[in-house]
Amino acid sequence: MSRFPALHSWALLALLCAYAPVARAVGATGPGPRTAPTLDALIRDLRDGDPPERRLAARELRAMVAADVRASVRPGDELDRGDAQGRLVDHDARTAPACIEVIDRPEATAPCLRILGMLETDAARPAVEKLAGDTASARIRRLARWVLDRLDSPAAP
42, exposed or middle or buried, with CB in 10 Å at 0-12, 13-18, 19+? Predict the structure, then answer.
């Protein structure tokens, strides 16, 4: 045991501070930035995942659809609007059927209703009408009525 334990603590702290940037530069501090999951992975988690994975996938898909809806009507670059509209068509073809399939799962109901309402997917009408009439939750009934109102309203020019 040393006569000067505080000196050893300070020396250790100085060494850690000196080598921390080097360790960070070579990647010794852990994984890098998280990459965004692909649309296929999210749809797979929505259909086949356990409830927490399904909830996360539904929320991520809702955020993606909402961003694409906003980008499709945003003034500015015509190319960006066209890309967003193309992604919305892709969501309508791939995400909407997955949402219709899992809409009765409680962890995916609200996000999927929002997705189907934003996409105005007419194929979802029977499932949404069932939710509007059978659900005990006032929040889900309100969302289901919102989707049905969107489906019944004339399309914007």
Answer: buried
Residues 26-55 have pLDDT tens digits of 555 566 677 878 999 999 999 999 999 999
- Answer yes or no: is 27 within a domain: no
| Residue 110 resides in a domain | yes
**CA pair distance 119, 50, nearest whole angstrom:** 25
Residues of the domain holding 95: 39-152
Structure confidence by residue, pLDDT tens digits, 86-114: 999 999 999 999 999 999 999 999 999 99
pTM: 0.75
Counting the structural domains of the chain, the total is: 1
Write the burial class of residue 114 (CB in 10 Å: 0-12 exposed, 13-18 middle, 19+ buried).
buried
**Total length of the chain:** 157
